[in-house]
Amino acid sequence: MRGSLGTSAALLARAVGSLLLNKIIVLYGGPGSLAQLGRFQALMGLVGALPATGVQVGVTTHLPPLHAGAPRYRVWLGAAAWLTGLLVGVGALLVGALGGGEWPVGRTVIFGLAMLLVTGQSLLGAALLVAGRRGGYVALAVAIGALGLSGVGLMLVLGQPIGRVLLGYVVGQGFSFGLAWVLAIRAGLLRGWRPGWPSQVAVRGLLRFVLMAAGTQLFGQAIGYVLRAYLIKHYTPAATDLWQAVDKLSGNYGMVVAVVLGTVFHPRLAALAPQPAEQRRYVNSVAGLLAVGLALGLGLLFVVRRPLLSLLFAPRLAAAAPLLAPQLLGDWARFLGSLFNYNLLVRGRPGPYLAVQAGASVLYSGLLMGLVPRLGLPGVVDAYALHYWLLLIGYVGWYYRKGALARRSPLINPT
Questions:
Q1: pLDDT of residue 1
Q2: pTM of the predicted model, to two decimals?
């Protein structure tokens, strides 16, 4: 319970920081600034996806049984640091190579170094959480939000264009690495650690998680970045801000759902993996409860959509209200479908899991290409909703078909 509270507090701090950042950018960044922020954050997500959801998940799987400062602990932490640096470096090189005139060498280098610091503090934060240093983990979450906002505020005060304002955002976040380093030293996590060539065994062990993350993050992040670039190019700044406001709102309440599922549902589901029948009963009960709870919560958001958009962003973005209905319908299906999707992760089968993620990305891309040119911005949220409803139907059909087969023949293991 204490671990869940620590994670919840950190996510709450990030959500508050995100809301403040959106508000500042909308009020002082000018028309189109919210869409520019969304695209920049999607780029940060692309570069940081594999270190954050691949390397860190892997290292937090291997660190808990080990004593901080022990030789094997240093091996795993060192391999994670080396792999994080490699992945961020490759990502920054790709940004510079493919970004064109928007990404000259100087800007690319600053972005790459800042992202290296951001992912480094995130790795140390994960190690602090594993070691039970929840106060330090929450402090880092508060610090990275405050420093990112400070970087944005400084650039705006200096009258810099939005491109430099956004670069100030990631540079500001990078300064949180210093706090992470101090906290890790005080916790004894870096005791006896020296930079060096990583263990091949540890690197191979972490690469399995990187492969899983490639399916869950890279596909979605890449589509998100390309979509934002397309909208910025083909629509007016004011119009793109409307869709971005809806997307940002979805991301913020999505963090709340994520922490509930991640701290309550997922651990219990994983613990029940050796008991398929009990696991199915648990999924059924949670699915029913979540379906009703989501319907009530998202329905309330729909009722107050106009004043909420005005409060969180700006009065002019209340015009995004018509786009919110399909987004809410899609989010209901997305959150509910994640219950069934997580079963593939619990079963430790990266092949089927990656196949599902790749297929989902192809489906989403096809829907976007078919609907956006015809419908404009409403086509984006329509494609989003249709995509997740089709996935939910597929997940439910697969899951209950497996359950029916298991009931007919006890020799068939639904895993």
A1: 47
A2: 0.79
